């Protein structure tokens, strides 16, 4: 049973003053839970080590996909393959951050990888800022948390320039480069997540700006906004959506990167990590690894399993299939046309009310922070965010 600590809930005006506007769900309940998950120092360390080990495994798996031309097998759109290869081969295409979704990790339960949100991970604002504020608001020790996300991102922005492990005492020197941050108009969560990243980049020393995607001009000569050219562009728009819904933009971005007119974040190769199909590759490369669940492109025989689309978010089109083949839980969504992955089922830890908890470990050069989502059998966009405390 998950260990929880009740706290005084953050008031909406307090959250809004932090810049966090999506605090209330459609049913008029708070998205931010008024409890904290209690973990031990040893459990925090285990989450940290798991994130670092998994990232190294993903690097090896992505290299295996590229070397063996397995793009189609894991659902990668053909019109991104050239861009993926180019971004993989050049170190300037730095991976800013991602989030591992994990089962277990508390009360002696083994940590198991569910998936890696490596391209456009959300829950950043609540994990980096809100759960720290939970401790501060409740007069708890602010350092009693596995949460160095803000600082890790600051350093990782600097590594875009240095391409080095250490950024101690480093100050960014511009040479005229500017950093543009973008989201799609009309989604306040994504907009404020991007603006948080913009703020962190500014703190790191970059000259930054923000624009909605439909305000930007893209051409083979580069990325332009308000008649200014931007050599660095962060977009909170999934690569597979760009490939499938705006193929002309995918072609232009390929030319922009190939012609060294701009660097795009997160880089295109993170789509290899993002594909659920990479879990099958990982299982082939690391069979029976303690952090992995058996995964296949075909239904697993004789075991309970989860069926999930190669590309999907917030539990869309995910279903839980029992050993006898019956479906006991499923989630509607818009990702049903993607190829499917079958992954061995593992239980999420629950509380006394039967709610399930899924850990999210952020990675920015190294594992750097932890947060939890609480919901039903399938974590979806109505699930709550739950902070944590080490104690």
Number of domains: 2
- Structural class, by secondary structure, is alpha+beta
Sheet bearing the most strands, described? 8 strands, mixed
The residue ranges in which pLDDT falls below 50 over 5 or more consecutive positions are none
Share of residues in helices: 25-40%
How many beta-strand runs? Answer: 20
Shape: globular
Task: Give the integer mean of the pLDDT values.
Answer: 95
The SSE order reads: EHEHHEEHHEHEEEEEHHEHHEEEEEEEEE
Roughly what fraction of the amino acids lie in strands?
A: 15-25%
Brief write-up:
With 391 residues, the protein is of the alpha+beta class.
What does this structure look like?
The chain has 391 residues and is α+β, with helices and mostly antiparallel strands. The protein has two domains: 4-274 and 350-390, no CATH class; 294-345, no CATH class. The protein has helices spanning 12-18, 41-67, 81-89, 124-137, 149-162, 188-204, 239-245, 247-258, 270-274, 278-285, and strands at residues 4-6, 32-39, 98-103, 112-117, 179-183, 208-212, 217-219, 222-225, 228-230, 232-235, 263-265, 295-296, 305-309, 319-321, 327-330, 340-344, 349-350, 356-364, 366-375, 384-390. Strands 1, 2, 3, 4, 17, 18, 19 and 20 form an eight-stranded mixed beta sheet that branches. A five-stranded antiparallel beta sheet has the order 12-16-13-14-15, with helices on one face. Strands 6-5-10-11 form a four-stranded parallel beta sheet, sandwiched between helices. A hairpin with a 5-residue loop joins strand 17 (349-350) and strand 18. Helix 3 packs parallel to helix 8, helix 5 (149-162) crosses helix 6 and helix 7 crosses helix 8. The chain starts with a strand and ends with a strand.
